[in-house]
Structure formats: structure tokens, C-alpha cells
Design brief:
It is built from 20 helices and seven strands. By secondary structure, the protein is an alpha/beta fold.
Length: 511
Amino acid sequence: MGARIDVKAKRVLVKVVSERYRHGSKKDKRRILDQFVVITGYHRKHSIRLLNSTAELVAPRQSTRFRVYDEAVKEALIVLWEASDRICGKRLKALLPILVPALEKHGHLRLDKAVREKLLSASAATIDRLLSNAKAGVRGSARRKPRAKTAVQRQVPVRTFADWNDPRPGHVEVDLVSHSGPDASGSFVHSFVLTDVCSGWTECLALVVREGTLIVDALEQLRTSMPFPLLAIDTDNGSEFLNETLVAYCEKHKIEFTRSRPYRKNDQAWVEQKNGAVVRRLVGHRRLEGIAAADSLARLYASSRLFVNFFQPSFKLLEKKRCGSRVVKRYEAPTTPCTKLLAASSIEHEMKERLRGVGVSLDPLRLLDEIRSMQRYLASLSSGSAVGIAPGRDPDLEKFLSSLATAWQEGEVRPTHHVEPRSRRYWRTRPDPFEAVWPRVRAWLDVEPDRTAKELLERLQMEYPGQFSQGSLRTLQRRVQAWRRDAARRLVFAHHERSADGRPGAGAISS
């Protein structure tokens, strides 16, 4: 890089070197030009023009711009901005003709005539520029500028939630679900989720890592297994999707490629719904990492894809409108994704027959049993207690079938959703207001055990004015209830002790 010298020195250098350059040989010119470029930092073509020219290098004219809005205007504007409760420049511009006279009328502000005229004539942009330092000091730092779009982002158009316009099967949304658990560091398994917007048909694949080429491999695998051709995909703005590999793949196979807006999850509402209703419902939020976890997750999705698409009806939003403060939504009748595909006119007759054949041959109980088995293995794998390989198919379903009738009594039956039991709470959050006077209350109960807690509280309020409020009644009721329980237990134990001695107890029947 050339040395940084000022324009005056460059002008002297051109005057000294140009004469030798013009009259020198070709070899001398090359040597002089090389040195001149290194010293000045000029482009080589520009240096040739300068050295061949007879005109002197003129320094650029320094124009002095007159400052219209000086420090007095700026300080007055800051005071007015604070007096207006820090509103923006456009609103402050409209307020100044009202605010300045009001402050001057009440003696809060005295402005020079020239300063006053400049304040009232300043534009909204000028006001914002003069207040920029003050606003930056209030915010603590300058507002972060939006990141510039990459070449791939400019190449892939944006599609919002309202832009689908009831497409035919084959227009899908794609997303990744991470299985990192509470710690997002390190490497962990991801779920590749694909949802058809028209039918809700959902496909899930397990990925060991998040990488662009694996996304292309997943799409290539699903294109051969889905009951409809892949026409369009919509993704988020992650680098695993927005890359040259996926763009080239979509161009090669004539697949429309769009993306959602950054930080607008509702643009991908269809797949976001399945992320929770399918992936999180099946897998939960545990951490899964390694080849074994990815293989087990793939086996879980192999069973769940048939169960979800053939035996899990879902709603689809038809219309949403606002009536005042209330939002009214209207949905289609719940149907399974397979049923929606059978009703679609764009699906070929041969494919519909294949779907009907697969649906007739499926055993939903068998699929659910396989899902539960893989969930148990995934739960043990994430906790570190898994031994051996994943369980195979159980030929006997009678045990699983008999357990369905009483499964509700156990609460959560999905092994991937079991949580550690919490310890029972035994401490108090507030001090007991009756701790000091309880011996006296217990003496009253020993004499009159039929007294209610309300009567006891009224008696305490009479003897200790202002110490016990009506809100303490529930606490006293609990204490009285515990006292009666202990008294009843003492009576029962005393009855048994007297019976063991051979003497009639309190409840014995005499002749």
C-alpha cells in the first residue's frame, strides 16, 4: 500500500517527476511509474495521465459552509424536546408553534429573536439531526442498523402467511426443530419437519447435525415417499436453508423456493403448528445427541408418520375476522391428511388407490404401541440409562390393549414427557398469627370442643383488639381442624388400649 502524503506533497512530486517521465525511455518510464504509484497510492492509469499532463495538480477547493443552527439553537431544542416528553422530530415540529409561546407566557423560557426564528423554521429532519446525540445518550447506544441482505436472500422471494391462497397439494413449509434440551451448546440431533399447506400431510426426518447438504438429501428422500409431487417449499432465513446448494437443487427440479420474513413465525404457521402438535408431542424437550439417538428418532418417525397422517384429524383455518375487540375464527371440519388428499382433484387416481390400500392395511394400535416403545427407549437414551439396541416390534398386543383402559389413572403416559417428581412442600411462607395464642385457644376448645373457628376468632378479636383480622379465619379453621383430628385419634387409641386390658371401652356394648 502506498504512503499517505498530502495533496501539496503530491503536487510537488508530479512537478518534479513528470519532466523525467515524459522524456525517459520505456524502461525508465516503467520504473518511474512503479515508484510513483507506490508513493502516492494512485491508480496506475490515473498516474499515467498525471505524469503525461503539463497541467499542475490543483488542490481541491475547500468550501466553508456556514452553520445555520448553532449551539444556542441546539440547547434550546433539547429543552423543548424534554418539555414535550421526548417525542419524535415530526411531532415536535408540529408542536413547536404551540409549545414555545406557552413556555414563554408562563416565564419558563426566554429566547433570542434569531434563535426563536431558527427553531420555528427548522425541518423535522433537522430537529432529529440536532437531537441525535441527546437521543443516543438516552438509549445508551446507537440503534442497530438492519443487517444487509445476502445474495441468496435477494434471490429467494418472501412469502407471508396470506400469500398461499389455497394452494394444491405439493406446496409445503419446511423447518428444523432442535433437540438440545436446556443447553444449546455442542452438537445435537435435529428434526426436519415438512408440512403440506393444503392437506396438512407431515413428514419428519432425523438429522444428526444441521447442515445444508443434509437438507437437500432429506428433500430428495421425501420426494420419493410423499403421495404428491413437490411443487414449492417455503423456509425460514436460516443458513441451512438459504444457501447456494438448496437454490440450485430447486432450480434443477423446477421447485418454487420462497422464504418467510425474519422473526415472523406466523409466516410459517402451518409447519410451526406441527412442530408442537407432532414433534414436541412425540419427542418432548429432552436432549438427544449422537448416531444412536438419531437412529432411534428415525424409527419413531417411521411409525408416527403413518399414525399422524392416517389417524390424526386436524383443523384448518378458513376465515378470521375481527368483531370489535373479539376475533372470530372459522375452521374446516376436522379430517385426516389422508382424507384431504383423497378429496383433492390434483392427486392422480392411482395414488388415491394406493392411499386407500395403505389405510386399510394399517393397525392403529400396532402403530401406537411402536410409538410408545420408541419413546421409552428415547427417554432412557437421553437419561443415559439405555442399554443395547432399540426394542423391536412386540408380536403380542393384548397386554398393551388391556393397559389402555386404566392408562388415564397414571397421568402422563408418554415416556418422553415424564418429569422428576417435586418434593412436597412443608414450609410456611408467612408466620402463623396464632402461634403465640394457640395454647389459650386450645384451652377454650378443651372446655367447649363444639366451638367453631369463627366464634373463636371473634373472641380473640375482643381480647386482643387490632391484632387479628378477618382474613385470618381460614388459618384458624385449619388449626381447629387439625386439633379435632388429633382429638379423635386420641379417643380411638384410648379405646383400643382399654380393650386390650379387658375393660370395656367407650364404645363397648353392655348387656
